[in-house]
Specification:
single chain; mainly alpha; 2 domains; 7 helices; globular
Length: 114
């Protein structure tokens, strides 16, 4: 959970994987903490949508992709001088982009339930 919270403020540290891992671990180890996390006003809706298969709203996907490529581009241009490191950033960016684009959207799931 601490790494997920740090990821909110540090662009190089991902929030989502740590947040989902914390939710999965709490679901198995502590129903009390899992309920707290699911009911949290900041993270709760986000985790519930992911766990229920609704994943992300299209607007959140677009914002995530925009921020992803902005941070990766900035890092590749200003912070990394090695060509292989820049290539690695591009590969990671492509992998995350493919993952986000293949997630079901919240609007799609809502139509399915009706």
């Amino acid at each position: 959970m601490a790494l997920a919270i740090l990821g909110l403020f540090l662009p190089i540290l991902p929030t989502t994987p740590f947040l989902l891992l914390a939710a999965a671990c709490f679901a198995r180890s502590s129903p009390r903490f899992h309920s707290w996390l699911i009911g949290n006003r900041v993270f709760g809706l986000y985790i519930r949508n992911y766990q229920e298969g609704r994943a992300m709203r299209p607007l959140h996907k677009a914002i995530s992709l925009l921020l992803l490529w902005a941070v990766l581009g900035f890092t590749a241009w200003f912070a990394v001088s090695s060509i292989w490191a820049r290539g690695l950033l591009v590969v990671v960016g492509i992998g995350v982009t493919v993952h986000l684009l293949t997630l079901k959207g919240a609007a799609h799931s809502r139509r399915r339930r009706e």
